[in-house]
C-alpha cells in the first residue's frame, strides 16, 4: 500500500546551506497494516508525512501510495490521489464554528459530493467512532478525546485507503489515549484501511502497531514486524519497546552486580519460569521484571542480582541455556 524507495529530500536555506531531511529513506507498508514510525525530533518524521501526502516532492527517489507515484501526478490527479489519504493530527484542528457533523462533512463538500448525499456518510462515520448522537454538538462542547474521534471520522469520510496519524495521542491523557488507539485498531479491522502512526511514544507502538520503523537522520535504521523486532534483543528498538527494569544502586548489597536478561517466548514455552529457576540455582535474585505481550509473543526483561563472585558462573550457565544475558555496567 505504501512504498518509499531511496527517498531523498534536501532543503536549500537562504544562506546557501543545505538540510538533508530524508537521506535515502526506504520503507514498505503492506495493505491493512498498522505501522508505527518512531524517532527523535529532527529524524525526518514530519518530512516523511509531507512526502507521503505530496505536500513536499522528494528531491529524488520514489513515493508510491495506493499504487500511485505521488511525485509523477498532475495537479488534478494529485487532488484525486489525496482523497485516498486521510490525515489525523496531534490536535483535531476542528472548525469551531461548525458542528461535529459539519466538520465531518467538510472533506465531502470539498470533493464535490452533493449535499443530499453527505448525511448518510457523516452519520455512518460518527457511529463508527462512537459519537452518533453528537452530530449537533460544537467542538467547544466536546472533550479532547471526543474531538480526536471527530478528527478520525472526518479523515475517514472520503473512504481513504490510507490513514496517516501524526502524533494522534500525544495531547491526551493515558485513558483517552488507550481508547483512541483501540478505535484506530477497530477502524482498521472494520474498514481494512492501512494505518501509519507517527509517534515518539513507544507505548503507542506496543499497544496498537503490527510493525515499526525507527528513523534516524532521515534514514530507516531498523524496521520490521513487532514480534521480529523485539526478538532481536541486540536492537535499539527492542530495548526501547520493552526496556530493562531500573534497579536503584542503593538497593544492592555491597558486592552484588546486576544481570540484564532478555527473553521472548511464545505460548506453551515456559521461558520465564525456566530462567528464574536457573537464576535461583546460581544464587541470583530477581530484582525487577517487565513482561509485555506483543502479537503472539511474550517479551520479558529481567534484572537479576547476584554476588560478584558468582557473576561469571551465572552468566555462563544462563548463556549455555540459550538465554540472552549481560552484566550491567
TrEMBL record:
GO process annotations (BP): amino acid transport
Annotated ABC transporter domain residues: 2-242
Gene Ontology molecular function terms on file: ATP binding; ATP hydrolysis activity
Gene3D superfamilies according to UniProt: P-loop containing nucleotide triphosphate hydrolases
InterPro entries: AAA+_ATPase, ABC_transporter-like_ATP-bd, ABC_transporter-like_CS, MetN_ABC, MetN_ABC_transporter-like, P-loop_NTPase
Keywords noted in UniProt: Amino-acid transport, ATP-binding, Cell membrane, Hydrolase, Membrane, Nucleotide-binding, Translocase, Transport
Enzyme class: hydrolase
Entry annotated with the keyword Protein biosynthesis: no
Gene Ontology CC entries for this record: plasma membrane
This protein's record includes keyword Translocase: yes
EC number: 3.6.3.-
Pfam families referenced in this protein's UniProt entry, alphabetically: ABC_tran (PF00005)
Role description: Part of the ABC transporter FtsEX involved in cellular division. Has ATPase activity.
Family: Belongs to the ABC transporter superfamily.
Subunit structure: Homodimer. Forms a membrane-associated complex with FtsX.
Protein name according to UniProt: Methionine import ATP-binding protein MetN
Species per Swiss-Prot/TrEMBL record: Actinomyces howellii
Gene field: metN
